Amino acid sequence: MESIILLKGKVKFSLTIDPSVWIFDERKVDLTTYFDQESQELDELSVYTKAVSEHWDREIKEGAQLPSSNKNTSKKYEKEKLLTGTFGIPVKYFLENALPDPTASQVIVKTTEKDYVLTFEEVYNGLFGFSKNGKPLTEDGPAHFYFGDGSNRENPLKHITALIIE
């Protein structure tokens, strides 16, 4: 089985995507809860500004705090989560890096079994699943494709080999 996904077509930069490294990516999401949460698009700058503001307010009121002794427990929990979690990553990050042509309207999702023609928006709002119960998707991967609304969460597109932007 090939363990990479090609992103090509009407893009400025063709990409070769390796799902095996996504476990370390901070943009990953937990697929066990992602579709159950209310979808909220937050402006990243406003989120950052709010977090910095809260930190600044806390330091003014309480003074600088020494690191908590819970740090080791937190690291242990995060490691356990990585070893047992089911994760995905939004496809939009890869599409944005490839710089698609503004006229792009559809994407062919190539699999080893069949090709699926989807709208650009469906793919842009979708997710690649890359891990299930802490294990990479070696049998039917390297990644699964989920629609952003979770309508195919029980039956995602599998055996993906390429995304061709048209």
The description of the largest β-sheet is: 5 strands, mixed
What is the oligomeric state here?
Answer: single chain
The secondary-structure class comes to alpha+beta
What is the 3D form? globular
Number of helices: 5
Instruction: Compute the CA-based radius of gyration.
Output: 19 Å
The SSE string, one letter per element, is EEEHHHEHEEHEEEE
Describe this structure in words.
By secondary structure, this protein is α+β, with helices and mostly antiparallel strands. 30% of the residues lie in helices and 25% in strands. It has 5 helices and 10 strands, in the order βββαααβαββαββββ. The chain has helices at residues 31-34, 44-62, 71-84, 92-98, 120-124; strands spanning 5-9, 15-17, 29-30, 87-90, 106-111, 115-119, 127-132, 135-136, 144-146, 160-165. The strands form 2 sheets. The protein has a 5-stranded mixed β-sheet with strand order 2-1-10-5-6. Strands 3, 4, 7, 8 and 9 form a 5-stranded antiparallel β-sheet that branches.
Question: What key attributes describe this structure?
Answer:
166 residues, five-stranded mixed beta sheet, alpha+beta
What's this model, at a glance?
The protein has 166 residues and is of the alpha+beta class. It has helices at residues 31-34, 44-62, 71-84, 92-98, 120-124; strands at residues 5-9, 15-17, 29-30, 87-90, 106-111, 115-119, 127-132, 135-136, 144-146, 160-165.
Set out the fold topology.
Blueprint: E1 5-9, E2 15-17, E3 29-30, H1 31-34, H2 44-62, H3 71-84, E4 87-90, H4 92-98, E5 106-111, E6 115-119, H5 120-124, E7 127-132, E8 135-136, E9 144-146, E10 160-165
Parallel strand pairs: 1-10
Antiparallel strand pairs: 1-2, 3-4, 4-7, 5-6, 5-10, 7-8, 7-9
